[in-house]
Amino acid sequence: MPVRTLPQAGVSRTGAYNPGMLEAIKALAERSFMERLVLLVNHVIAAESSAVERLRPHAARTMLIELTGWPTLLPAVGPFAFRVSPAGLVEWLPEASSLPPDLRVAVEAANPALALTRMVAGERPAITVSGDAAFASDIDWLIDNLRWDLQDDLARFVGDAPARQLAKVGGWFAGALREGAKALRDLAARGPAATPPR
Q: Full-prediction pTM beyond 0.85?
């Protein structure tokens, strides 16, 4: 990438902002975070054989988590794609597939600072779930039935204080995902006759 120079009273200097370098740092941080998150999720799933058995039938199914309305002034975040492995665990797909996911989770993120403030205050973010009702139902089952001390597991990675806050935010996200999965299940139970015409 060519380096820009800024003219100033006959002196040329290198620009202080390098968007290519910022994007490379963001990509490395995102990869590192997602790999650790998947290790943590798989640690919890593998500890419960019933959870693994619930996910095995969904092998090769994908879930896409995207932040909708993300401000364009901020560096782009996501979408994050995951696939269920034949072993009944979760794999992160670094490059979101061009194929439609089996389950899509859209998190409203038009105002990230306000959303973070609300999450810290105990409010859940707005989440929309669409896609395969059976897959959503099993994800909901995992959220409801997997019992782990997430805070304790997180503390090993990030320390006690951040673990408390991350466990709190994870609980809100899980609750919102649970509500979306229930709504999808209810819609599937009503059948195609209950679906309004387009």
A: no
